[in-house]
User: What shape does this take?
Amino acid sequence: MNLINSKIPNKRPFNLDEIRSDFPILQRLVNGKPLVYLDNAATTQKPDFVIEAIKHYYDFENANIHRGLHFLSEVATEAYETARLKVKEFLNALSASEIIFVRGTTEAINLIASTMEKAKMLKPNDEVIITNMEHHANIVPWQLICGEKGIKLRVIPINDDGELILDNFEDMFNEKTKLVSVVHISNSLGTINPVEKIISISHKYNVPVLLDGAQAVSHQNVDVQKLDCDFYTFSGHKLYGPTGIGVLYGKTKFLDSLPPYQGGGDMIRTVTFDKTTFNDLPHKFEAGTPHISGAIALAIAVNYLNAFDLNDIIQHENKLLKYATKELLKIDGLRIIGTAKDKAPVISFTIDGVHPYDVGTLLNNDGIAIRTGHHCTQPIMDRFKIPATARVSMAFYNTIYEIDILINSLRKTISILK
Ligand code: PMP
Assistant: This one.
């Protein structure tokens, strides 16, 4: 059986009860209470189709891929490469060879930083434009390259609503600007960035654009050809797929111009002790045995999501966002950090006189999972002059009832802490 064409129906109505029953973990109790999982920006839960796909792979198809002549190797290779095709369709890439399987968004950005440096496409004192709302995964890799001099990060500022201020964006470009690398949707603020505008301006200056899509792929349609971005990255685990697998999309002309990231098996064509020649795309960037079951299960997650009408998912998530925002704002002293007009279902907040960590701890007693801290975006905390926030991040399986549980528990928590 080809796993990619598994039991998932082609089309499914948006039925919340049915959707929730697809996710075994949502049925469990935490601290004696039904789990209310509102930490989806950190990682999403997995439907049983995805969990079963992993078991099925190891039960029936496990073998190493590529060049194996035996039955299982052919089956595993076909499933892995079909998974790549599925991701190609999901992002609407031009070719499957533009889809590189990596560990996740972090590895994808490190791959680009490191190989651009190796190719001398990024040299000491060159400039990369990022934003004030980047995840550390889109800050630190740029700081790790080009030795002591390093490269210069030019940072697009944000306003008090957590929206990019693009008024002076064009002034940031000069002959040293080599890349614009921005987050598509902010994991802390929920802001959906105007990436089309950023891409068209950057291309006017012949500068390629990398989009960090870690938070975007589960909340909206992503079409890399329509966007015309040059690189796009995401992590499988934020798209209802497994951890340890992610995707780097790159336009062929850029991927071709970059050297391999790591050396080893599969990424070579010939090896002698004097010289090695490299394999074609995408294998040039996939040294060693990849996360085969992860790629297959990620494709199953994509299949699972594709069975729904994306508009139903977006509509439901918007309803959750609006309702949670309205109810949270009724709480005295609560301030939402990130009030952009265009937002994904992520709400960061602070409460006067109450530490976010205490909020998170007490909500946990009621079985409610939210995240507290800087969310790997310390520059955002500096921008808003706060040490941390509490963050509620929703997915399409969350319910209005769960938001009510959150609000009640939050009110109780505040009365205990104040
Ligand atoms: N970018 C953003 C916007 C994220 O939200 C995350 C994960 N929180 C990352 C990058 C890093 O993703 P990963 O840890 O899966 O590599």
Residues 252 and 410 are 50 Å apart (CA to CA). The longest helix spans residues 71-91.
